[in-house]
Specification:
Layout: E1 8-11, E2 14-18, E3 20-21, E4 24-25, E5 31-33, E6 40-44, E7 50-55, E8 60-64, E9 71-76, E10 81-86, E11 92-101, E12 104-113, E13 124-126, E14 137-141, E15 144-148, E16 155-158, E17 176-182, E18 188-195, E19 203-210, E20 216-223, E21 227-232, E22 238-243, E23 250-254
Antiparallel strand pairs: 1-2, 2-5, 3-4, 6-7, 7-8, 8-9, 10-11, 11-12, 12-13, 14-15, 15-16, 17-18, 18-19, 19-20, 21-22, 22-23
């Protein structure tokens, strides 16, 4: 994930921070614990002061980055969480929590209030808004939170106080959406999509979409190789991803190389 200052957080067996300038990448500046098998995901708040680290089947941890060293401020059991996202103003954290009551699945919305100095309030429980699914991917931008779903249109802006989806949405991501990430400044969304031709293997593609207009901008054809660990820098000037055929190799591309 790219931070608002352009630095890059890379999640693996640990979460490390790098400075990216020109064609150079500096050594790590700080590190957070990751998953021993590198099954780790990181999300950053729009103001860059908070990091949410999700480790497969382990606790989801919230870190404050405003001090001399990262500080652990909140933890929730991974098995209770389907989706998490920061609020557009970095003053809250949203989590879609799942439980089973009387043998039936029960989804609810948790909101955790945050402050810039690192304070974390007790979670509030809210009802799931109509039109939002626990399977929707939540994407945070400074001008709003979006939900990416398999429905049409696939990308919809959410109400900042309730996360209820707008009726209108954005449909510029391709027929089969796999995953998406948003730049720290909220100006650009990076999405991976695919097509299954009548013959041959599945074909993969990355595309950037301007927000909030929804205009498709730049595309990268990946052929039969899919991408993982997507990240997009402020303004969409750089994207970063790993290739499925190499696993541990990190690719960083500039906009002019599209």
């Amino acid at each position: 994930a790219f931070a608002p200052d352009g630095s890059l957080f890379v999640a693996g067996t640990s979460v490390q921070r790098f400075e990216v300038g020109g064609a150079k990448v500096s050594p790590a500046r700080c590190a957070l614990p990751g998953h021993p098998k590198a099954l780790t995901h990181i999300a950053l708040s729009p103001n860059g002061l908070w990091a949410l680290v999700t480790r497969y089947l382990e606790d989801v941890t919230l870190w404050h980055l405003g001090g001399a060293a990262p500080s652990l401020r909140w933890t929730i059991r991974a098995l209770r969480v389907e989706r998490v996202a920061f609020g557009h103003d970095s003053a809250s954290l949203w989590a879609v929590s799942t439980d089973y009551r009387g043998g039936r699945r029960w989804d609810e919305l948790l909101r955790v209030r945050l402050t810039d100095d690192g304070a974390v309030a007790d979670p509030e429980t809210l009802p799931m808004p109509e039109g939002l699914s626990a399977y929707d991917q939540l994407l945070t931008t400074p001008h709003g939170v979006y939900a990416l779903s398999l429905e049409t249109p696939p990308l919809r802006r959410l109400d900042p106080e309730t996360l209820a989806p707008d009726r209108e949405g954005i449909d510029a991501l391709g027929a089969q959406r796999d995953v998406a990430r948003v730049s720290p400044d909220g100006a650009c969304l990076l999405s991976q999509s695919y097509v299954d031709p009548p013959e041959g293997a599945r074909r993969w593609r990355l595309v950037t979409v301007a927000l909030p207009s929804g205009r498709a901008e730049v595309g990268w054809d990946l052929g039969e190789v899919s991408a993982g660990g997507l990240a997009v820098a402020p303004g969409g000037e750089r994207i970063a991803f790993t290739r499925s055929d190499t696993g541990r190799s990190l690719v960083i591309l500039r906009r002019e190389l599209a």
